[in-house]
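Appendix B, example 12.
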Amino acid sequence: MARLFAGTSGFAYPQWKPRFYPEDLPQKKFLEYYSSRLNCVEINYTFRRLPAAATLESWVTVTPPDFLFALKAHMRLTHVLRLRNAEEFTQLFFRAIDPLRSARRLGPVLFQLPPQFRCDTAVLAEFLPLLPSDIRCAFEFRHESWLNDAIYKLLEKHNACLCLAESEELEVPKVITADFVYFRLRKPEYTPADLREIAARTKTLLEQGKDLFVFFKHEDTPEGALYAEQLLAGRAHAP
């Protein structure tokens, strides 16, 4: 049965007190508490550094068995190499995150490309075969030149997901290219009507057998976490 995973991009925000985190909760307990209310988190930490195995194992220890971690791919792949000549570091990155994979706690890996990186179909075609076939991977394109049928077909061939990101700068077309869907909802605010529309969209995709990963923007308030909790609880009802 298809599953809905919802959360935010990060969790370590004291500003979420007291509306999400209890006022007296120490920061070292944030992840444990977060995972008692939401079932997935998008981790930015892996964008800038390769994680130590002990760090990943500690995350597994303090969260429930069905809680998943979606990880951003390291910036060396997306921003330095720009997916070119990337075989060696790709292998290194996936070895570094293997503790989550082995524990069955790894969600999708998100490759977030720079806004100035224009479409290069040949580069993407060379890069996609380097990815492990048993790990879900999503691509967030932030230059509109990538949003074309040739790229969609290439992603579909490798069961790689077009990240359905929406922000004030760019809204990616709702094109499904994999057996799962990855949403990044980055607008600063969502109205009750917006949330009902998101709930309706997720309901349809779940009925189609697609696992969903929905991440709201964190910002300096707990709104994103509360939106995600409403979505999981079915309180953002579709009409």
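The chain has a mean pLDDT of 95. Strands lie at 4-8, 40-43, 68-72, 106-112, 137-140, 161-162, 164-166, 180-185, 211-216.
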